[in-house]
Amino acid sequence: MKSTFSTVVFLGVALSSGLAQMVSSHAPTIAEADAPGPSGSTMSMQVTDRPVARVNGAVLTDRDLLREMLAMFPYARQHNGFPKAKEAAIRQGALQMIEFEELVYQEAERRKMAIPAERLNAAEASLRKQFSSRSDFDLFVKTEGGGSRQLLRQKIRRSLLIDNLLNLEVSDKAKLSATQLRAYYDKNPQRFTFSESFTLQTISIFAAADTSAKALGETRKRAEEALRQAQATKDLGEFGLLAEKISEDDYRVNMGLHKPMQGHQLPPEIAQAVQGMATGQVSGLIQIQNNYTLFRLAARKPAGKVKFEEVKDRLRKDLEKARYEQLRAGLGAKLRQSAKIEEL
After folding, report:
1. Which residues, listed in sequence order, are joined to residue 82 by a DSSP beta bridge?
2. What is the pTM of this model?
3. pLDDT for 18
C-alpha cells in the first residue's frame, strides 16, 4: 500500500516511485532566511544544518525538516516559500514526521534488521539514474553526504530499514484477506443498501414580482398551458424539447433533466406526488407559493443493495487505508512512550 506520508527521511530511495521526488527535493531551496515571497508566502527557513530536534540523542536538523516540509507542500518551490497561514502547521507536521521516522529507524536497528548488499546496491544505482550527469550526482553526494559515498550509502540503508519496518508493522498488517473483506460486507449491510431513487424532468413557471390577483391569474394560466403541452409529449426527448422552450428553471438547458434523487431528497410536494406514478407519466401542477412546477418521471430505481463484487475493490482500498492509518498511529504512539524527544 502506498503511504500517505513520506516513509523515509532520505526521501524514498527504497522505492523506485520515490526516486524522482527525492532528487527534485534536493534542488536549491531557500537562500535567505525570512526572505519574503509572493502572494503571502514566506521563506522562513535557511538550511544551516541547525538542530531542530533530538530523538533519543539522535540529532535531526533543519535540512531534514525542510526536506519533509517540501514533501508535504511541494508547491513551496514554485511560490518561493510556504503560505504564512499554513507554514506553522506544515512545519509541525513535518517535525512530527521526521521524529516518527527516526523512531522507526532506531527500532529497526534495535531489532537488528538487515539490508542485503544487493538491495542496497540496487537502491544506490536507481538513485544515480535520476541525475542527468555525473557532476550533478557528485554535487548531490557533496550536499547530502558531505562528499562521502559511504555516508550516502548509510543514508540509503537508513531509508530501506525504515521502509522494511513500516512494511512489517503497518503495510502488511493493514492488508485484508478476501474472507475478512466479505465478513465486513455481510456485517454492515446498511452501508451498501440504497433507497428507491427517482429521475425527474421538470418544467417550472415562476410568478412575476407583481403579486396582484390579475398577475397571479396569468401565471396560473401559463402553468396550465405548460401542463397541457407536457401531457401531450410522448417520451423523454419530446418533454425535454418542451422544457428547453418554456421552462423557467435552470434545468431547461438540460432538457429539464435532474440527477437521480432519493425520496427524502425531493421537496415534500414532489416526493408525495411521485409515489403513485409510473415511469413516463407526467404529474399534475404542483404549486409552491406563487410558482408552479410539473414533472415527468423519467426513471425510478427500486431500493436495493450493491453487490459485493461491485464494491469489493473500493471497499478494500477504503478499509486498508483506515487500518494503515490506525496501525501507523499506534506504532508511533508505542515508540514515543519510551522515547526521549526534545524539540529545539
Report:
1. 42
2. 0.66
3. 34
